[in-house]
Amino acid sequence: MPEPRETAVYTHGHHESVLRSHTWRTAANSAAYLLPSLKPHMRILDIGCGPGTITADLAELVPDGRVTGVDRAPEILEQARATAAGRGLTNVDFAVADVHALDYPDDTFCVVHAHQVLQHVGDPVRALREMKRVVRPSGLVAVRDADYEAMTWYPASEGLDAWLDLYRRVARANGGEPDAGRRLKAWALRAGLTDITATSGTWTFATPQERAWWSGLWADRTLASAYADRAVEGGHTDTAGLRGAAEAWREWGTREDGWFSVLHGEILCRKEA
To answer: What is the mean pLDDT of residues 224-228?
Structure first.
């Protein structure tokens, strides 16, 4: 039987506009639902670690333990290693991995964490089974994913409506599920996890600085990232359509009354002892 492997294409790629968002993420703003469960001795696997900012935070929170960050993209791990080294961390390491076939023995980690990962993978249920396999009995599988359809903003914008419709079509054509947040609990149940705490959290962008940052990175991502290439190459839009979406983002960012909220689904699953 062939070894399971990733079949989806990562929609965003690692353009600077994407990393502008990824490097902003911290354990506090992206994994708050998990933090009360951490203990200093824990061994943690951080899946889809990207540039390593959350990974480094987790390592600081388990000073007597160890954190391993894994990602499919070898090039991004160099940035993650630099992030950890810059903070003087010695209890963290990084490796290339596919969440569908993790190269770790059963019952290895106290916590397996994944932030904004399952929306991009080809088989999220298989991924959760793997996460369950490598976590220790009584250990935790912790997953958080955005839900694009549930994103909401003010004021109304036909341009942002078109952007959201386009993004969801491109993500699904790439093999992912952009509305993953609402599906996490269902996927976990299908993966055989039973002790599941399901919650939600948000990111909100409303101040002038937040609006400028969020709208700017999405405008740039819409024009210049791997997402832009895949949107055009897949026949979902053309360059004029991308320019229109980017202009809608920039116009929203200038609105004094502008407000944007990103809903995330969260699951904290304890493996049976």
So the answer is: 85
Please give the pLDDT value at position 14: 62
Single pTM value for the model: 0.94
Per the structure block, which two tokens stand in for 163? Answer: 């952007």
